[in-house]
């Protein structure tokens, strides 16, 4: 999902954290790539999908195509997995291409059932069954962890969330908000009195963001605006709910803690079992 010189970014390979800087990634791209690279994976991206596939095939036995919330596979897959979010119940039937991905799926993971209300989980499940009765459904939770709980407990915290989640994703909270509540923050501080330039403009465009700060970073100027906003904010500490090490990109003048989350499968149907049955492990 490159932004910029698309000729230069025709085929990109990310095998190290340094590659993220080499390819001049936006914060949104880093949010997508960094967790996989940090865990030892290799990511290919760009705009020439034929050459990207050819390059990936040279070094991999199994290739995972990830369209995020924006697309469906440009290659014919052996297995299609779609993640449904009951915190956004109804989006799976009204949003494109999410609606297409539900219908194409061999496997649907209904995630975040630990933080969604049961009625919404059931609504998503019923919709999946109505349009794709042969899909296998995996129930999943997303337990939250933080690396420095003491930075949250009893503190007035600024919560920085994944940018697209709050903007065009239309979510009213993310992992950072859940962590702030679970670990006993005294207050979630409203950043809007301290926003600058393009960050201020973001709240004008997406007024429903509220008291959370989206990790916007489309270009160096906006990254600097995000840094200036965080550093100007009157708070005790920063809860970083975006999946990247924001402290590696920004110079923060306050204590911060990173929020982590992962899939916890519930029940006997698991991704590993399905992948082994398909011969993909």
Write the layout of secondary structure elements.
Elements: E1 11-14, H1 17-22, H2 27-38, E2 43-46, H3 49-57, E3 81-84, H4 91-94, H5 98-104, E4 107-110, H6 118-131, E5 136-141, E6 144-146, E7 156-161, H7 163-166, H8 175-182, E8 187-188, H9 197-205, E9 213-214, H10 220-232, E10 237-240, H11 246-249, E11 256-261, E12 264-266, H12 271-277
Parallel strand pairs: 3-4, 4-5, 7-8, 7-9, 7-10, 10-11
Antiparallel strand pairs: 1-2, 5-12, 6-11
Q: Can you put this structure into words, describing what you see?
A:
This protein is α/β, with parallel strands linked by helices and 281 residues long. It has helices spanning 17-22, 27-38, 49-57, 91-94, 98-104, 118-131, 163-166, 175-182, 197-205, 220-232, 246-249, 271-277; strands at residues 11-14, 43-46, 81-84, 107-110, 136-141, 144-146, 156-161, 187-188, 213-214, 237-240, 256-261, 264-266. Strands 6, 7, 8, 9, 10 and 11 form a six-stranded mixed sheet that branches. A four-stranded mixed sheet has the order 3-4-5-12, with helices on one face. A two-stranded antiparallel sheet has the order 1-2. Strand 10, helix 11 (246-249) and strand 11 (256-261) form a beta-alpha-beta unit. The chain is globular and about 50 Å long.
Task: Provide a short characterization of the protein structure.
By secondary structure, the protein is α/β, with parallel strands linked by helices.
Question: Keywords, please?
Answer:
3 domains; 281 residues; alpha/beta; 12 helices; four-stranded mixed beta sheet; Rossmann fold; globular; six-stranded mixed beta sheet
């Amino acid at each position: 999902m490159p932004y910029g010189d698309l000729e230069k970014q025709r085929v990109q390979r990310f095998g190290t954290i340094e590659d993220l800087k080499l390819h001049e990634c936006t914060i949104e791209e880093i949010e997508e790539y960094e967790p996989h690279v940090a865990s030892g994976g290799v990511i290919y991206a760009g705009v020439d999908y034929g050459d990207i596939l050819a390059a990936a095939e040279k070094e991999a036995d199994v290739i995972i195509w990830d369209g995020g919330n924006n697309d469906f596979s440009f290659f014919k897959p052996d297995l299609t997995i779609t993640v449904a979010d009951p915190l956004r119940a109804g989006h799976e039937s009204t949003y494109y291409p999410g609606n297409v991905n539900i219908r194409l799926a061999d496997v649907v993971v209904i995630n975040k059932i630990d933080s969604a209300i049961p009625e919404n989980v059931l609504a998503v499940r019923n919709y999946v069954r109505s349009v794709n009765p042969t899909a296998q459904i995996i129930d999943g939770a997303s337990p939250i962890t933080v690396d420095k709980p003491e930075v949250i407990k009893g503190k007035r915290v600024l919560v920085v969330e994944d940018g697209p989640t709050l903007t065009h994703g239309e979510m009213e909270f993310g992992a950072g908000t859940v962590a702030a509540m679970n670990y006993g923050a005294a207050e979630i501080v409203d950043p809007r009195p301290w926003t600058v330039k393009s960050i201020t403009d973001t709240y004008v465009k997406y007024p429903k963001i509220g008291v959370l700060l989206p990790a916007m970073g489309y270009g160096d100027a906006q990254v600097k605006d995000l840094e200036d906003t965080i550093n100007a904010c009157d708070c005790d500490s920063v809860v970083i709910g975006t999946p990247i090490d924001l402290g590696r990109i920004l110079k923060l003048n306050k204590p911060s803690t990173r929020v982590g989350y992962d899939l916890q499968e519930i029940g006997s149907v698991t991704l590993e079992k399905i992948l082994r049955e398909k011969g993909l492990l």
